[in-house]
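Exercise: predict the structure of this protein bound to C2E.
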Amino acid sequence: ETSEASEPIVVATEDLENDLQWNISMRARIDTAMEAGELHCVYQPKVNVLTGRMYGVEALVRWDDAERGPISPMTFIPQCEKAGRMEDLTRYVLQTACNAGRYFHANGQLITMSVNVSSILFADLKIARIVQDTLLASSFDARHLMLEVTETARISDFETAIEVLTQIRSLGVRISIDDFGMGSANFETFVRLPFDELKIDRLFVNRMVEDPKARAIVASLVRLGKDASISVVAEGVENEQELEVLRKLGGTNVQGYALSRPLSLGQAVRFGQMENEL
Ligand code: C2E
Ligand code: CA
Ligand code: CA
Ligand code: CA
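Solution:
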């Protein structure tokens, strides 16, 4: 005997309960995954387009769920965020990546290790502490760590984000703006946030061969990088034509399947040892 008026309330309660249950089980699953070693990182080379030299790698997290098989970070990163587990996940990836970074260095490759950090974590000074603690625990040199800030369009409190980024940079860690050009806050991001590298989103990179407008955007970002002394990376470079355009623009750093897919740690170290012919 549900009255019309009570119906929406019942629905809302059910939703809330489902949400709560989902969050609890998701949280438990992520915790279990970390404990059971179902999470690991792969490393995608970042290469200088003119010399072919691998100067850095980006750590990308992978989740091989015991029951469901591999789950894409595109799926589980948002779930992790919703379940309030981004901090733990980031701590895990930072630790794994810094240890991997030491392994590269021990093998004579002085690469920069890049780690993705979701912009929601820059709403709180805690991330600066996590970064500092991880560097200490792994004794990895801060100057070889770079944080890629993803989804900058979602930063709502710029004052706090600036404070957090400034504190992290004072450790010697560099900051990269990921997926530049996507979302709405990017030029505001460019002028307001302190950073050292920008990554041109692959949307523009993949269109630039046939689309003069996309090419003009890439060219202007390369130019902007030079003028502002900011390192520029074109991401998602998939073929020789794209590499050729980027070489003609005077050279940038590049990342993408044309250079290498994300690799295991051992494979990435071997990739760095090869003389890469581009
Ligand atoms: P992203 O940071 O933009 O990373 C680049 C994504 O593009 C990676 O996908 C990579 O495997 C893929 N990729 C690289 N080269 C190419 C290419 O030439 N063509 C195409 N089509 N794709 C390419 P992945 O590993 O599935 O990661 C997806 C996104 O998930 C990342 O995008 C990043 O935003 C997020 N992510 C991954 N690992 C982490 C992490 O540890 N923490 C956080 N917060 N986010 C992460
Ligand atoms: Ca990234
Ligand atoms: Ca990106
Ligand atoms: Ca992306």
